[in-house]
Write a structure and sequence with these properties.
The structure holds two protein chains of two kinds.
Chain A: H1 2-23, E1 28-35, H2 42-61, E2 65-67, E3 70-80, H3 85-97, E4 103-105, H4 110-122, E5 127-129, E6 144-146, H5 151-166, E7 171-176, H6 180-197, E8 202-208, H7 216-224, E9 229-231, H8 236-248, E10 255-257, H9 264-270, E11 278-281, H10 290-303, H11 309-328, H12 335-348, E12 351-354, E13 357-361, E14 367-368, E15 371-376, E16 382-388
Parallel strand pairs in A: 1-3, 1-4, 4-5, 5-6, 7-8, 7-9, 9-10, 10-11
Antiparallel strand pairs in A: 2-3, 11-15, 12-13, 13-14, 15-16
Helix pairs in contact in A: 2-11, 3-4, 5-6, 8-9, 11-12
Chain B: H1 2-32, H2 39-62, H3 70-97, H4 105-127, E1 132-133, E2 142-145, E3 148-151, H5 152-174, H6 176-186, H7 198-223, E4 226-227, H8 231-246, H9 251-271, H10 277-291
Antiparallel strand pairs in B: 1-4, 2-3
Helix pairs in contact in B: 1-5, 1-6, 1-7, 1-8, 1-9, 2-3, 2-4, 2-7, 2-8, 3-7, 5-6, 5-7, 6-7, 8-9, 9-10
The chains are: A alpha/beta, B mainly alpha.
């Protein structure tokens, strides 16, 4: 028995090693989804996964993607990056080299998208990050694209909004220094705010590190600095803690956030404390029309809650990829050639009508689109407040 | 001045958690001469058990099955969770440490790390990666004492932690079981020969430490109501630092060092840029240990440990 098994072992190993390439027939296109299914922002990962499956179901009902008169089937490779930079890099490498995907959609957060984009670019594999707003994700990387606006736009947009809306002159910033997205956005906001109100008008620029739960010393400092508003570009789990602790320390002025707030989880974790606060985001679910509404309804019917912005942007990114694949004209089966062809097709897209609004693309593969300022209503819904365009 | 007192109050709350968790490390080390590196994760398990108990009681109360006011739910949650988590601690001891009691200390330390990972990942498997919000059982009221803001939660947390520490101290000083623990800490080779049941004492030590960690977990969840499976890791490390700083095996030392750690962290962030908080805070602690390598109340020889 033992001997028999030993004889079979090389065969099994051989099969295991070469099986993935054996599955991928020529009429199948593989798309990698690099999502944070566990870790810090699992809700975003869940939305990504659900949206990708919804898109795949649409493709399946249509019988596949039609490229140059031939129908191709699509296969999704969904992998978890645990919301960690190093895992996102690993996932990208695995999907590119072992799973032989044509294109990667994700990772979502800049913390993972910035390092993972480097891998995709080195392997000359097109990647589109739906939600990463940090400029470094696509900068000098011809193979990396994105589906959302950038922090250099979001920072000033928020600074302008706060100035116009409240007429404040002194702002405080509280951010996670160990994460690319909050750190980048905090700096863009500071620059924009000081551009509007002069040097020193950001009276407190306080930071903490990922996984911190107590912000009392930073908030005490902020309150003493005489700031009129706190800007905190954090993810939803920290938002809940920061807002509650600020209120417990006697802060009753506005707290403003960025697109990382726009998750279904924010209200669940933060509760009433967050009512009445503002943040900028990519789309507002309440009061949506047309294809946006169709998407929201379909998602809500299947999963029971309103999709967040990361899900909507994932949908748009997948549609952009779909359009580019079709524009490519033909799939040769030579992965290197097809990836190059897809990249060129993506770079050629000039205008796209997505569910998160109309966008046009710059040379770097970055979209130009409007941001939405959302107010968290007294029922805990994300209400459209106003639109800020570049 | 208000600024200083505000930070003092913040530090008092923050230090309570470190102190409660450090006690668990310290007791286990004192009695069994091993570092229970899974202790930070027992704190996490305690918080989650508290979450389950509190949610259950809230559901029960809202169905009208029992007229429970929220403060009573909180008290019951703390008591029931301490009780349940002490069993988790005893199981950890029975499964993880008892078979290795005569193995090299390094094996036991590694076991602790592995049990920690098992607890984290089994939580992940059981509940998924979603964070949970601990039900808000007491409505937060903020008092403004001439510029210093204190909430009823903060007061409650500090009072409950201090009373638990006092209760532990009384238990160890005044009861027969406490005496057995102290004797074991003095010499865990000879004392069992005198008829003190080592296995029972080991279980008891783990149960007490875990119960305190559970209390810390629930108090933590009251103040910072977002729970995630990895919340115990960094907290465990830092409380371990407090246990060492207090002097291994010393209850008073662990409690004081826990508070000291909280004070150092908060006041460093008060004076220096908050980015440098942990860098400066833990450099200070390294410096203290350089001059007092056995901590505040530790003895140079482990045979003379006191509990």
């Amino acid at each position: 028995m033992k001997k028999q098994f030993a004889a079979f072992l090389p065969v099994i190993l051989f099969a295991l090693i070469f099986a993935p390439s054996a599955w991928s027939g020529k009429d199948t296109i593989r798309i990698g989804i690099n999502a944070p299914i566990t870790g810090d922002i699992p809700k975003v990962g869940e939305g990504t996964k659900f949206t990708a499956r919804m898109w795949l179901a649409d493709i399946k009902t249509a019988g596949g993607i039609k490229i140059g008169g031939k129908m191709y089937q699509v296969e999704l490779v969904i992998e978890d990056n645990e919301s960690k930079a190093e895992s996102a890099v690993k996932v990208n490498t695995k999907m590119i080299t072992e799973d032989e995907v044509l294109v990667i959609v994700g990772p979502q957060a800049s913390k993972q998208a910035v390092p993972a984009g480097d891998v995709a670019n080195n392997y000359k594999t097109p990647m589109i990050s739906p939600w990463s707003t940090n400029p470094d994700t696509t900068k000098d990387r011809p193979y990396v694209f994105r589906g959302c606006f950038l922090d250099p736009f979001q920072g000033p947009a928020l600074a302008n909004f706060i100035t116009e809306e409240f007429g404040f002159k002194k702002a405080a910033v509280l951010y996670d220094v160990a994460s690319d997205y909050p750190k980048g956005l905090a700096e863009f906001f500071k620059r924009a705010w000081e551009g509007l109100h002069g040097g020193g008008s950001v009276v407190a620029f306080e930071s903490f590190t990922t996984k911190d739960a107590d912000f009392s010393s930073q908030l005490t400092k902020i309150i003493r600095s005489g700031a009129e508003v706190i800007f905190t570009p954090q993810y939803y789990n920290e938002v809940a803690l920061i807002v509650q602790q600020a209120h417990e320390l006697g802060w009753n002025k506005p707290i403003v956030g960025s697109d990382s707030w726009g998750s279904a989880e924010t209200i669940e974790l933060c509760g009433k404390e967050c009512y009445g606060l503002f943040f900028s985001t990519h789309y507002a679910a309440a009061g949506a029309t047309g294809t946006t509404k169709a998407f929201i309804d379909c998602y809500k019917k299947a999963h029971g809650y309103v999709p967040d912005d990361a899900a909507a942007l994932t949908w748009d990114s997948l549609r952009i990829v779909q359009e580019a694949i079709q524009a490519c004209g033909a799939i040769t089966g030579n992965l290197e050639k097809d990836r190059q062809c897809l990249r060129d097709a993506l770079a050629r897209i000039k205008k796209f009508n997505g569910i998160t609004g109309q966008m046009s693309f710059t040379e770097d593969g970055d979209p130009i689109k409007c941001a939405v300022i959302v107010r968290i209503s007294d029922k805990g819904e994300f209400e459209f407040y106003k639109s800020v365009c570049p | 001045m208000a600024f200083f007192f505000q930070n003092l109050i913040n530090a008092l709350q923050w230090g309570s958690f470190y102190a409660l968790i450090a006690l668990g490390y310290s007791m286990v080390y004192g009695v069994l001469m091993l570092f229970n590196f899974a202790h930070g994760d027992i704190f996490m398990v305690g918080a989650y058990i508290g979450f389950a108990v509190a949610s259950g009681l809230v559901a029960l109360a809202s169905m009208g099955a029992a007229a429970l006011p929220n403060w009573l739910i909180l008290v019951l949650t703390i008591i029931i969770s301490m009780f349940l988590t002490s069993f988790v601690g005893m199981v950890v001891e029975r499964v993880g440490y008892r078979p290795l009691r005569d193995a090299p200390r390094a094996s036991a330390a590694i076991t602790g790390l592995m049990i920690g990972i098992i607890l984290e990942t089994s939580n992940l498997a059981l509940l998924g990666a979603r964070r949970v919000r601990f039900p808000s059982l007491i409505e937060s009221t903020t008092y403004n004492l001439s510029g210093v803001f204190v909430t009823n939660k903060k007061i409650m947390i500090v009072i409950v932690s201090l009373s638990l520490m006092l209760a532990l101290n009384q238990f160890v000083r005044r009861t027969k079981w406490g005496m057995a623990m102290r004797a074991m800490a003095f010499d865990y080779v000879v004392v069992p020969l005198m008829g003190v049941p080592i296995n029972t004492i080991a279980s008891l030590t783990f149960a007490l430490g875990s119960a305190l960690a559970a209390a810390a977990g629930i108090l933590f969840a009251v103040a910072y109501p977002v729970l995630d499976p990895y919340m115990g890791i960094v907290f465990g490390w830092k409380a371990f630092v407090a246990a060492i700083l207090g002097g291994r095996g010393s209850i008073l030392g662990a409690a004081l060092a826990g508070f000291l750690l909280g004070f150092i962290e908060i006041f460093v962030a008060m004076i220096f840029p908050s980015t440098l908080r942990d860098l400066i805070a833990y450099s200070i602690i390294l410096l203290i240990l350089t001059f007092r390598p056995h901590g505040f109340f530790g003895e140079p020889y482990s045979a003379r440990l006191r509990l």
